[in-house]
Amino acid sequence: MSFLDIFSGPTLEKLEKKGDTLFESGSWGEAKLTYERALEKAKKEHQRLPDAEPRLLKKIAKTREALAAVHQEKAEDLMEGGYFDDARALLSLARELTSDETRIHELTILSDRLKTMHHAETEKELVDKYYGLTDEEESEEFYETDPDEHFHALCGTLPPDIQEAYLSYDEDFRDGYIALNAGDFETAATCLSRAMEADSTPGSYIPLELATAYLHLEKHADARELLVPFLEHHPESLPAYRLLCEIYWEEKDFAQADAVIDSVPEDLADSLEVLLLRGETRCQAGDFETARGLYQSFLDEQGWQEEIGIALAGVHEAAGEEEKARLAYQDVMGHCAGCGARIDPEIKHKYAELSFAAGIQDTSVLELYLGLAQEIPERASAYYARVSRIYADQGNETEAARFRVFAKHGVESPATKS
Predict the structure, then answer these.
(1) Quick one: angle between helices 52-81 and 101-121, nearest 10?
(2) What string of DSSP letters covers 29-43?
(3) pLDDT tens for each residue of 218-248
(4) DSSP state letter for 25
(5) What is the CA angle 299-302-306, rounded to 5?
């Protein structure tokens, strides 16, 4: 990354990295929105980064599967408690999100089980009247999610007080919130604008969601005008601080971003998210020394935290400290392996590339590239080219030639070649 890139606001790469961090922390809904925002940028930068779109589409699919898994698990709990309507909404939403055949089969079994449980407590005629379905239609149309059910399922992941507020808003808010979570930001902005006109109650959460839509549409001034007064009513809303900081980063007003972070209430000031906002603001401003100090002090005083470790590696990388970045990514991988956690392929990619650039082309790096070719197949050609180069440098021309063929033909895995 060049020095000037630091001042260009959230780039495609930064948005993707943010999505990765959100995904690993379990914030799958936010990760999905962030990846979708990155995808919009990728479409505009196709010539520069032709592999970005398929990579982001794959990550969006992963967030959808993660959300589907959460909805499926919660639906099972609701079924056991007798909350059949809520369970039905979550099963329907999970079915819309997933493309995994195993999960689809599991959801089908659960839907059949739900119908059996429900029919045991409710007369069949009332069920048919409620859904407007015949026996033949019910099985086929079960996953046609009603907007209200979809909306209730989305709100079910929110804190109780916010959930209560969202459910009190009108249909325009419902439709806008569904569109926002589906990545249809134009529709979201239109519907949420109407909802805000209809409900100008001080303290409403509608401005937060409308500002999110505006930010995805790159209407930064409109988003800022909503967020500043919103925070006056909701000073505890960390998502609002993050959105506002992103706007100031894009405007290169780093002093204002610092001021926003300094305004966070004292009981939230030491939170992990606020620390990451401080560090990212300093990094965006090119003040790498301060960002490094923030992250390293946390690790020294509080112990290992993956998000901080990744952020520290990113600072080293942005500052051009390639060896320190390589060692930092190695540290992240070591901690993940030590606790049995899955290592993000992007972390392995960065470590492998930095190692290759440093002339470290041993067997462990070679195996890393082979694994990455399976995990990120859209980059397989590049990874096989690296493998070929390593074999050539080791004097193994037979394998070098073999992998040059794989690199030329793209994503086909050598494991499948006869």
Answers:
(1) 20
(2) HHHHHHHHHHHHHHH
(3) 999 999 999 999 999 999 999 999 999 999 9
(4) T
(5) 55
